[in-house]
Amino acid sequence: MLDKGKISSRQLTLLVFTFISSTATLFLPAFLASDAKQDAWIAMLPSGAVGVLAALVVTSLGLRFPGKTLTEYVNIILGPFIGKFIGVLFLWFYLHMTAIVVREIVFTVVSSLLPRTPLEAITIIIVIVCAYTVKQGIEVIARVNVVSVVFSYVSIALILVFTANNLDFGSITPVLGGGIGPVLRASITPSGWFGEVVSVAFLIPFVNSQDQVRRAAIIGVVWSALTLVFVVLVTLMVLGPGMSALFLFPTLRVVRLIDVGRFFQRTEVIFLIPWLMSNYIKICVFYYIIVKISSDLFKPADSLSLTLPLGILLGSMSLYIFRSNVDLVEFLDKVWGIYSLPFELGIPLLLLIFASLKKAGKKVQG
Amino acid sequence: MKRIILMLIIFTAAALSGCWDRMEIDSITFPIAMAIDRNAQTGMTELYAQVVRTSVGPEGQMMKKFETLETSGRTLAQAMYRMTDHAEQRISWKHINVIVISEKLARHGLAEVMDLLSRFMQIRGTSYLLVTDENLRELLQGNPKIDIGIPTPLAGITVSGERTAKTEDVTLKDFFAAYISEGRDPVIPKVSISHREGDRIELEFNEMGLFKRDRLVGFLAHEETRGLLWVIQKTTSGNLILPCPGGGKGLISVNPLQTSARIIPEIADRLRIKVEVRAEFSLIELICPLSIDIETVKQINRAVEEFVRKRIEHTIEKTRNELNVDVFGFGERVYRKYPQYWQENKDNWREIYKDAEIEVTVKAHLRRTGETSNSLVLEFRGGE
């Protein structure tokens, strides 16, 4: 066991909500609008369904093997050899995903707040803070997250209030004007985000009421889907589909348009500070999972001793995986959905099938 | 001990390194308006920036003086960088309130300069756009006759738009929205100097520049602009003056209180577009020998309807038949209602739009007549 922290099922819901919706609020509207135009918000619904499916699969697995994480029970299902291999695959996947999230934050800070600061400076600061948080354990992360969710909601509410006079309901018509095809195509990318609920597979052992886990995960997915639908709708209604697709950060553009009486303006921080906070939580959760996977794989004497070395790896990866923001945006838009779904849905689904064929683990009802 | 030393190292490293993006406020110039021109011979982009210098006057009051910085460059970005050299100060563009485009540049096309204006973080989507054929230097340098306390006199467009409804302010974001939409053409209001007195100038915002994609193709005069504003639902104030109903000598003036407009496209054998405008208005002046009764109210309503309808029809006629621009956003309405039809026909939309049958209906309702009943003209002169 990595640490003795315990989180409640409610805290799990909040964690799921945070790590699905945090990066998505800033990046998704542009990707969705370029394919699905004014129906971008509808594209959220099929991908939300994918997220619910992934949540069902990983919680069924987790409940079959109580007290064990995915990298532990995969050894029981498929034997130690293939099990270790899949463990390494997941280690790679989480390192890669977390490095991308770090890069997203750094990219956003650099391009909209501190244009002349080198990427390295911001990356190092983020990684140090996150390494410290991870050392404190999952319980601390979950508790900090509660505060962060409150801030996120206050900022979303403020944005809605201050953009209310700019909302144009006409710009989301015609509903399904281009047919269902573009909407489904657009929903692949957000599916990758919703699939991140697979992380629950590594958090289940820390939840104190196991029978609530499934419900908690599904509520988390549905809740973030609704929040994202809402954010995309506001973006579309303020900017219209054309501009939503044109700008890199349409959500941020919406916030920048806030101007109450030529006086209350330049309000980006209202949005960016909670955004940074929830992304910090997201990195911490994933970073924690990386440490967990690697201690499952390599079994060091003190599992948390891996934290700092992995952090250095994480920071350097995030600096070198993309040459520029064009790489990042193209990767997220074109590759991320297809690349992440095998990990998020494919492998867990196969594991579940094998587990039930071999009748491994204990039977769960429902 | 080790801990304390480590903490000291971290603290000093954080405190002494400063920040990369440090800018001292007294070494930055903040232009509040910029004007862009294009030299047709050389193809260079000419840039003017309005800077305000404040000082304390002899009676201790605040004095504002406007100055301009000027440069040119092969692109807008180059001109902006060169301006930093000329000013020998850093220039922050974050407080740009108004962007003035010269008519020459507007006729040439705005796509080139718009790219920077949308990409560059310091320029905000809420900046107002204006087009002008005046001398840009004079426009930016002139001190306003009456200082109304807004940062730059050019931002008077907001006041003008709200109070008189002669014109409408258009922000960078509005322009992009229309420019990106396939079914709508952008507009930008025009500013001109109406009166000069030494170095003091008076500005006037009274025409509306019409764009086909990013190119200026013509202007709507002030009365015609109103015809546009009625339909794009921006008229909520302003004043209409029309002849007495029933043909008598004299005038009445009314103020719109609340207006709404709907554009309803229909596809039968060809495209038909219905424009339905509803207006509630109040009576301001009645200089006709009329008594106020239900019959008169009906007459006034009919007169207002007729008046507004003619204006709208005239504006549609001018934008559609003379210039073939779709500033009303009819194409967008067609797309919203008939996406299939739009996909098939959007490439020759301008042709279809030209042949479309547009029917304007206006419903006017007089809601308030002020604090007097019958016209004083009637009371004093008995309807002579």
Topology record:
The complex is a heterodimer of chains A (366) and B (384).
Chain A: H1 9-36, H2 44-64, H3 70-112, H4 119-136, H5 138-163, H6 181-186, H7 188-194, H8 200-203, H9 213-246, H10 250-256, E1 259-260, E2 264-265, H11 268-298, H12 307-320, H13 325-357
Antiparallel strand pairs in A: 1-2
Chain B: H1 2-17, E1 28-29, E2 33-38, E3 45-56, E4 62-73, H2 76-87, E5 90-91, E6 98-102, H3 103-108, H4 111-119, E7 128-132, H5 136-141, E8 143-144, H6 156-164, H7 172-180, E9 187-197, E10 200-212, E11 215-220, H8 222-231, E12 240-243, E13 251-267, E14 271-287, H9 294-322, H10 330-337, H11 339-345, H12 349-355, E15 357-368, H13 376-381
Parallel strand pairs in B: 1-5, 2-6, 6-7, 8-10, 14-15
Antiparallel strand pairs in B: 2-3, 3-4, 9-10, 10-11, 12-13, 13-14
Helix pairs in contact in B: 8-9, 10-11
Describe this structure in words.
Helix content of chain A is 74%, strand content 1%. By secondary structure, chain A is an all-alpha fold. Chain A has a two-stranded antiparallel sheet with strand order 1-2. Chain A is globular, with a radius of gyration of 20 Å. Chain B is an alpha/beta fold and 384 residues long. Chain B is 35% helix and 33% strand. Chain B has 13 helices and 15 strands. Chain B has a 5-stranded mixed β-sheet with strand order 4-3-2-6-7. In chain B, strands 8, 9, 10 and 11 form a 4-stranded mixed β-sheet that branches. Chain B has a 4-stranded mixed β-sheet with strand order 12-13-14-15, sandwiched between helices. In chain B, a hairpin with a 2-residue loop joins strand 9 and strand 10 (200-212). In chain B, helix 8 (222-231) packs across helix 9 (294-322) and helix 10 packs across helix 11. Chains A and B meet through helix 9 of A and helix 7, helix 10 and helix 11 of B.
